[in-house]
Amino acid sequence: MPTHAAAKSPKAYRRHEFNLKGLAGISDAQIEEHLALYAGYVKQVNALNQELAEMLARGQASGKSPEFAELTRRLGFEYNGMILHEYYFGNLRAAADPKPPAGSGLTEALVGSFGSVEQWRTDFQAIGEMRGVGWVILFQDPVTDRLTNHWITLHQDGVPAGFKPLLVMDVWEHAFMRDYKATERDQYIEAFFRNIDWSVLETRLQEERAVRPAA
Ligand SMILES: [Fe+2]
Fold first, then answer.
1. Residue 196: which of 118, 87, 33, 84 has the closest Cα?
2. Cα 51 to Cα 46: distance, rounded to the nearest angstrom
3. How many CA atoms lie within 13 A of 86 on its CB side?
4. Which residue from 165, 146, 160, 169 is spatially nearest to 203, judged by alpha carbons?
5. How far is the CA of 170 from the centre of ligand 1 (A)?
6. CB 138 within 8 A of CB 199
7. Mean pLDDT by 10 residues, the chain (215 residues)
8. Nearest alpha-carbon partner for 121 in 172, 71, 192, 182
9. Cβ–Cβ < 8 Å for 68, 61
10. pLDDT at position 10, please?
11. Cα–Cα distance between 4 and 140 in angstroms, integer?
12. Distance CA 25, CA 194 (A)
């Protein structure tokens, strides 16, 4: 009988700290609650990885096992829940500029892909007002350098493989319902745009690899 290898403990992800007090139109209490939700995703990712590693070590990794299948399916949800929140909090700052600096690489890339920064913003905001819970993400295709806006359902459905996130906006209701009503998502989106750290987007654009705070 083959003996099963002992479970290797996967390296745990750590919760990243974000200092986001004093945002415009997004309260400190809202951010605090949202950061606590993010912490839950980090915890779940670590717990799931551990559980799956243990199942594998016990010889229980099987596509026929409902438990193995369900835990594996949840990985995509929990991982992207963690990762997208890190991008989201990472692209916010207090006392932000209303738009990227003229002549910056980001401005040029937005103009090249959308015609103007305003056109890009119109498209991004329109996607944010779509019904359903999820995210709006400005991605760069690293192969063509083209920038495109995408709707992501939940945390994981619709992410283009290998694309690099530049700007990530959470439009789940938990992102704004301390400050706004469910019907006031457009006001939250306006507030979001008053708090974008454009220098972070520029770094994400210029770096060859995807960059997020906890990496
Ligand atoms: Fe969120």
1. 87
2. 9
3. 22
4. 165
5. 6
6. no
7. 56 93 98 98 96 97 97 97 97 97 98 98 98 97 96 96 97 98 97 98 92 69
8. 192
9. yes
10. 65
11. 43
12. 8
- What is the reported pTM? 0.94
Distance 5 CA to ligand 1 centre (A): 38
- Are 140 and 164 a contacting pair, CB within 8 Å? yes
Cα-to-centroid distance, 32 and ligand 1 (Å): 11
User: Which residues sit with Cβ closer than 5 angstroms to ligand 1, an ion?
Assistant: 170, 172, 175
User: How close is the Cα of 38 to the center of ligand 1, in Å?
Assistant: 7
Say what the pLDDT of residue 1 is. 41
* First-residue to last-residue Cα distance in the chain: 41
Which residue intervals of 91-143 are DSSP H helices? 105-114, 117-128
Q: Residue 23 corresponds to which tokens in the numbers above?
A: 């945002």
